[in-house]
Backbone:
């Protein structure tokens, strides 16, 4: 009996590599997302710290004006970061979809391989059974 060979093994290898590539791409976009979120939180923390610094000591009118300008500048930065986050979110959704598609394609080939292996085992067991029966009959007939 021939040994088991899956005719689509090369395709399965390609699918596994495409899953790895999709995972790496998804991981990269996820890191971008996390970095953007951290920067937004850091900016919010910096604004809070500036507000506390102004309100904690003696206050000059120039301090309030500087705080207002800083708030306006940080608001513009936060809006840009929010736009970036929206773009990253779209790319993240695309990468997740690509990842799911790659996993689905790989899973399909894995199932085909398992079915093929199951059929091969069935045929192998059947052939072994026939060989055992022939050996038994030849021993029986030789008596």
Residues:
């Amino acid at each position: 009996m021939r040994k088991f060979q899956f005719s689509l093994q090369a395709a399965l290898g390609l699918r596994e590599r495409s899953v790895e590539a999709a995972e790496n791409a998804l991981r990269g976009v996820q890191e971008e997302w996390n970095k953007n979120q951290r920067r937004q939180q850091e900016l919010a923390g910096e604004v809070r710290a500036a507000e506390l610094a102004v309100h904690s000591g003696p206050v000059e009118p120039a301090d309030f004006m500087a705080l207002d300008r800083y708030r306006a500048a940080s608001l513009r930065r936060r809006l840009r970061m929010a736009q970036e986050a929206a773009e990253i979110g779209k790319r993240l959704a695309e990468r997740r979809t690509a990842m799911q598609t790659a996993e689905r394609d790989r899973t399909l080939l894995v199932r085909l391989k398992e079915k093929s292996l199951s059929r091969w085992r069935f045929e192998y067991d059947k052939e072994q059974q026939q060989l055992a029966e022939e050996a038994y009959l030849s021993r029986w007939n030789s008596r």
The chain has a mean pLDDT of 92. The helical segments are 9-56, 61-141. Residues 10-112 form one domain. DSSP finds two helices and no strands in the chain.
